[in-house]
Write the structure tokens for this entry.
Amino acid sequence: DTAVSQTPKYLVTQMGNDKSIKCEQNLGHDTMYWYKQDSKKFLKIMFSYNNKELIINETVPNRFSPKSPDKAHLNLHINSLELGDSAVYFCASSQYGAGATKYSTDTQYFGPGTRLTVL
Amino acid sequence: GENVEQHPSTLSVQEGDSAVIKCTYSDSASNYFPWYKQELGKRPQLIIDIRSNVGEKKDQRIAVTLNKTAKHFSLHITETQPEDSAVYFCAASMYSSYKLIFGSGTRLLVRP
């Protein structure tokens, strides 16, 4: 019973191509996220969606377009791939937003990651 | 915006010793501070978290302390074991901010 799943696990492609990564959560959570982890292991938020609505876009190039068809899915489409896009992309979900209420915890659960390599 | 600094970047300890990882945050409005463990090739997984209304939290061999005045929080692992070897990330967020700001990570190596 996978909580947060992503496909594909590995993605190798040429510069200039367009690719998509899919994410699904079966936890009934309201909020989903995309994070990018570069070769130095820095984890950086890219997007947050709450109930299918975009909440956070952290100055990500508009070649990256997230789409949330429903609360359980958040896909990431990347146009015109560049060498610098090579990274591991993690999807995550949480019940509400980070730190949603003053005294409750709101854990973010991460997917297994998609390693994108742009040649 | 919020910035989280984490030290040290690498930490090597003998099995059975304690390990301490420290983080500082910039935004005094931050109120939620989770710690994640990431094993090689795996996803980050929450190991412990703390809210700003609490100064310390413990879960078996793992504890986190928070000093709101100084804006820093620390992870303490006692009686380390080789399976504790991983990259540890601290993070901070504000009430309903919908994002976690991560530190740069600490690679912990526990030598048998």
Observations:
- Chain B touches chain A through 27 residues (CB under 8 Å).
